[in-house]
Amino acid sequence: MSKTNKSLTMSRLQSAARLTRTALAARLLAHGFYAGQDQIMLALSSEDGQTPGQLASRLGVRPPTITKTINRLQAQGFLDKRASNHDARQAHIFLTEVGRETIKAIEKSVRKTEKQALKGLDKKEQKALAKLLARIEANLSNSELVEIDDEPETEE
Question: In sequence order, what are the residues at sequence separation of 6 or more whose Cβ sits closer than 8 angstroms to the Cβ of residue 106?
Fold first, then answer.
């Protein structure tokens, strides 16, 4: 693959990711959520009572970022912080009843955004895209960078 095609592919991937997040953010804002807050809510929906450190690790963000977002969600009435039964220095984060009620709205917003993004792609294309994106994620999450093309490296 030529260098031009590689940069075009990366540009399109980044653009698609940005536009997807923008479309989802607009839908979530109607429910009182800002970018990133939905991820915390969904993570707690699947496993309530996580620590801020567990949430940060699970979502791939830094602990100070998660703490700030947790505090905002708590102020909005979606989350509750409780001290650990085993270690009073450690807090666990739980969805409130209001938080649990909003999960369906978040999931609906995600589904609508996905439907919008995949419009015009048949099931086979959607499956192929999901497989390719999973491979890209795996490539980028590896600690070792692997050279996959046969083109010689040029010094610039």
Answer: 28, 31, 33, 38, 41, 42
76 backbone dihedrals φ, ψ, rounded to 5°: -80, -10
- How far apart CA 117 and CA 112 sit, in angstroms, is 9
Residue found by looking up tokens 């996580």 in the block: 50
Residues 6+ apart with CB under 8 A from 66: 40, 52, 55, 56, 59
Where does the pLDDT of residue 4 fall: very low under 50, low under 70, confident under 90, or very high at 90 and above? low
What sign for the dihedral angle of Cα 15, 8, 156, 144?
Answer: positive
pTM as predicted: 0.76
DSSP letter at 21? H
User: Please, are residues 33 and 7 in contact by the beta-carbon 8 Å criterion?
Assistant: no
Residue type, 112: K
pLDDT digits (tens, 9 = 90+) for 20-36: 999 999 999 998 898 88
Contacts of 44 (CB under 8 A, 6+ apart): 50, 55, 79, 93, 94, 95, 99
Token couple for 73: 């969600």
Q: State the alpha helices, DSSP H only, in 94-150.
A: 97-117, 123-141
Output the pLDDT for position 3: 63
